[in-house]
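Subject: design request, 338 residues
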């Protein structure tokens, strides 16, 4: 009797295991997710996507692949995001700024001098406030898997060193397709021109514009140093990166596939931020080595720039919305212990 029940139990256990293995493979289909990027493959976004892709492959038993496309081959940030909404592209890595035309609340991140450090950005974005913004995305056909990093933005131009507020005057500046950036640079006296990132290099080269603003990593990655002489460490804004997945595609995936994508986007986030910050630490020297004239802005002049752009907060509050602004500013106070 004892022996029989042991045999029976073993048989049941074996059957259960076989069933579990069977469903595990059924939970994952062969997938190849196409990802759009505006930058080129040596950018830290590449490190992040490689880590994410290795993770999805491993966790899906070799079934879920991440296939990056670089240099805007699938479109600019904005056009790719639209394609992700319709489901013709699976995923896009984009700054929040171009997505503001779809989700106005994201405009809070464009307000000048909002974040002081990357650590406080991480804390805010990876916490409940970041989740609040992510929760807005499914309504417009997008799923934000995680927050990656574009970084603190600085100014380059080919006209003159910018060391004070007045130096922005009359400089024709490319800005992202975003009203807050447009207004910020207009307010500083520049002639601001909105343009997709994919067009910036040639616009700088042909002098259609004199300057642009981006994190060091993008300035280096896109070789803007070839067509820009002056780099000003203005650190006027921090741009987060969204990892946007198509809701349309998402809805056709299993729960297990969802879980793997979310988990692996966070694995990718750690690697992408690490690589971005490592590159950022070396970029200014590299850019100097490529012939750029680098200058800082004195604390007194930064205070004047902050003062002059303060009006942006009031002017755009209505378009962004009171709730997201209050959420972010309150959370920043909490993080800063104020
Ligand atoms: C810009 C943005 C872009 C990024 C990049 C494509 O200036 O900073 O460079 O979104 O990931 O348009």
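Subject: RE: design request

Done. Sequence follows.
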């Amino acid at each position: 009797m004892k022996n029989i029940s042991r045999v029976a139990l073993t048989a049941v256990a074996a059957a259960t295991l076989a069933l579990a293995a069977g469903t595990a493979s059924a939970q994952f289909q062969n997938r190849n997710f196409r990802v759009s990027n505006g930058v080129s493959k040596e950018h830290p976004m590449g490190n992040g996507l490689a880590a994410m892709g290795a993770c999805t492959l491993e966790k899906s038993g070799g079934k879920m692949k991440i296939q990056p496309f670089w240099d805007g081959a699938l479109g600019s940030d904005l056009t790719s995001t639209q394609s992700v909404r319709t489901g013709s592209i699976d995923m896009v890595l984009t700054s929040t700024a171009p997505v503001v035309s779809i989700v106005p609340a994201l405009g809070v991140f464009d307000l000048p001098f909002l974040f002081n450090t990357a650590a406080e950005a991480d804390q805010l974005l990876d916490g409940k406030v970041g989740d609040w913004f992510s929760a807005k995305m499914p309504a417009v056909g997008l799923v934000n898997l995680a927050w990656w990093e574009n970084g603190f933005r600085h100014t380059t131009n080919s006209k003159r060193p910018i060391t004070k507020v007045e130096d922005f005057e009359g400089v024709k500046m490319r800005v992202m397709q975003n009203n807050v950036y447009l207004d910020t640079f207009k307010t500083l006296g520049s002639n601001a021109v909105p343009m997709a990132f994919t067009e910036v290099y040639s616009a700088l080269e042909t002098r259609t514009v004199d300057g642009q603003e981006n994190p060091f990593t993008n300035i280096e990655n896109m070789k803007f140093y070839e067509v820009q002489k002056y780099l000003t460490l203005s650190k006027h804004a921090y741009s987060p990166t969204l990892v946007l997945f198509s809701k349309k595609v998402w809805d056709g995936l299993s729960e297990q596939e969802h879980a793997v994508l979310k988990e692996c986007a966070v694995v990718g986030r750690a690697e992408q931020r690490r690589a971005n910050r490592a590159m950022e630490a070396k970029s200014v020297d590299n850019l100097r080595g490529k012939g750029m004239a680098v200058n800082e802005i004195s604390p007194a002049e930064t205070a004047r720039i902050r003062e002059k752009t303060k009006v942006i907060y009031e002017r755009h509050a209505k378009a962004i919305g009171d709730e997201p602004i209050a959420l972010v500013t309150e959370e920043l106070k909490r993080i800063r212990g104020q």
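The first helix runs from residue 2 to 26.
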